[in-house]
Design goal:
Elements (H helix, E strand, L loop, with lengths): L1 E5 L5 H6 L4 E4 L30 H6 L3 E7 L7 H8 L5 E8 L2 E6 L4 E9 L4 H17 L2 E9 L5 H4 L1
Parallel strand pairs: 1-2, 1-3, 3-6, 6-7
Antiparallel strand pairs: 4-5
C-alpha cells in the first residue's frame, strides 16, 4: 500500500489519488498529539481523539511506501506534517529491540519498503543535509528498509516524482 502525506492545497488530492492507495492531507483540521501514549498501550494503534487522524497509526503502519510532501521549515517537516507524524507513534510498541545494532521500539506492523520525502521551497545545503539525516532516522525508527529525499525549488515537477 502506498500512502501520501502532504501539506499542499486540496487541489492536489485529485492528482495524488491516481498515484496511491491513501492520501493524508496535513491540513490542520485535527488535534495535535496529547502525549497520552494510549495508542501504545490502552488501544493499540488507535488514537483516543475522534478526528480524521484516529486511524493514522494503522494507515502508516500498513504502508509499504510512505511518501511525504512537505514545505521546508529550517531543514525539517512543516508543522502540519509534523503533527500528523506525531500522531503516528502507535505504529510501534512501547517495547524495545535491536535493529541495525541500535535500540529501537518494536514494530507493530513489521518492515516496510520506502520512506520517501519530497521537500519543496527554498533550502540551504545545511538544511538538505539535516533533512537527509532526519529522513534516514525516521525510516529506521518506523521500520522502512530505505529512505529517499528529493528537493524541489517549485512544485512544477512534483507529479513525475510520485
Amino acid at each position: 500500500m502506498k500512502v501520501i502525506l502532504h501539506d499542499l492545497d486540496p487541489q492536489y488530492d485529485a492528482v495524488f489519488a491516481a498515484k496511491c492507495d491513501h492520501i493524508l492531507a496535513a491540513d490542520g483540521k485535527y488535534a495535535p498529539c496529547q502525549g497520552c501514549f494510549g495508542c501504545w498501550t490502552k488501544h493499540p494503534a488507535e488514537c483516543f481523539i475522534k478526528d480524521k487522524l484516529q486511524q493514522v497509526c494503522r494507515l502508516i503502519g500498513q504502508a509499504d511506501e510512505m511518501v511525504i510532501i512537505t514545505k521546508n521549515l529550517y531543514g525539517a517537516y512543516s508543522a502540519p506534517v509534523k503533527n500528523v507524524l506525531d500522531r503516528s507513534i502507535g505504529t510501534s510498541t512501547p517495547f524495545s529491540t535491536y535493529r541495525g545494532r541500535q535500540m529501537h521500539h518494536t514494530l507493530r506492523y513489521g518492515k516496510h519498503a520506502l520512506w520517501k520525502v519530497i521537500v519543496y521551497g527554498d533550502i540551504t545545503e545545511g538544511e538538505k543535509a539535516t533533512f537527509r539525516y532526519m529522513a534516514e532516522r525516521n525510516a529506521l525508527n518506523d521500520g522502512f528498509e530505505r529512505s529517499e529525499v528529493l528537493f524541489l525549488a517549485d512544485l512544477s515537477g512534483l507529479e513525475a516524482l510520485l
